[in-house]
């Protein structure tokens, strides 16, 4: 989807970053927040995501997810028809009917998200009110929440942020007797979550919870004894909401590559008083495995020039990994929003002459990209095909959100995601 001009960025941070940053506002090319349903519905296994939107929204969901033939999908669209847009029908009554039908047919649903879209915003449908009305009707069997995935307000990973921020008020509160706990915030593939849980347990950190939890009856308790660590860099609203409940953020890089994973684990270990020797014993096997895996792939990447368009907000941690562990040259690192506080550890590891850009003016950025003619371009689906047609090698940024890339055992897979298109291009040339 091509969106409207981007809002200006304010993260409330006092920290300064001594990079020269290109700040642009204009046409941008990025999917809306509805797209995040594709990975969120796999993560929260008893939730259903009901998009309150138009046929365009339904088509986006269907093409982004592919058609599910064997599984009953856990997302759908309550269609806003022209009659609703013209104010000729009571959209709330229709929504209630759709929800009643859905919950009758799917008794396995425990949590229902009403997901706002551009059309629901245009007709000013109050989904917060609808969620509270429906919750009263269906609790305790089904909890009904709402958040926005509209392209007017969100880019694709921000959909996860608004979803998790909507979950925070529902989290149980810690009691005074509860021990200090670690909360990992941001969707991770189950396999990655299990690896991290194992590593934390080996360090003696047993009170580890995840947001989102896999099931709605496993929501983690939060309070002043909660130390939370972000696993994804796009969760500003969620972080703010957790801090509102007294939780404290552990500053850390993001767990991409060996360095990022070690820094991330160390931040948690330090907060829980893990002895340095024990930390090294627990992490060394993973570090060695990751370095062995990376050594086979980074030859393909060394010295190659990469240009990252602003899309997923993963760009800065990715750039840090690709530069420091795979030897790539950074031509331009774009990000839709730059949260200086959450990214402070990442920015400190980037070369000081990195060309960073925040926001987007699509035409100007395309001009810079064409002029630089990098070896690899990381961008959204909408840009990839035209750029490939111009002879550039591209990587879809959305793949980086769908694929398990965090942690030691995924470091080589992460590098391979960038090496593969280069190898394919080289074969085509031959
Ligand atoms: Fe398009 Fe808006 Fe629907 Fe997203 S929410 S698919 S941008 S109409």
TrEMBL record:
GO MF annotation list: 4 iron, 4 sulfur cluster binding; ATP binding; metal ion binding; oxidoreductase activity, acting on iron-sulfur proteins as donors; oxidoreductase activity, acting on the CH-CH group of donors, iron-sulfur protein as acceptor
Keywords: 4Fe-4S, ATP-binding, Bacteriochlorophyll biosynthesis, Chlorophyll biosynthesis, Iron, Iron-sulfur, Metal-binding, Nucleotide-binding, Oxidoreductase, Photosynthesis
Record field: catalytic activity: chlorophyllide a + oxidized 2[4Fe-4S]-[ferredoxin] + 2 ADP + 2 phosphate = protochlorophyllide a + reduced 2[4Fe-4S]-[ferredoxin] + 2 ATP + 2 H2O
EC number: 1.3.7.7
Pathways involved: Porphyrin-containing compound metabolism; bacteriochlorophyll biosynthesis (light-independent)
Xref: InterPro entries: LIPOR_BchN/ChlN, Nase/OxRdtase_comp1, Protochl_reductN
Binding site for [4Fe-4S] cluster: 32, 57, 118
NCBIfam families cross-referenced by the UniProt entry: DPOR_bchN, PRK02842.1
Family: Belongs to the BchN/ChlN family.
The protein, known as: Light-independent protochlorophyllide reductase subunit N
Organism the protein comes from: Ectothiorhodospira marina
Organism classification: Bacteria, Pseudomonadati, Pseudomonadota, Gammaproteobacteria, Chromatiales
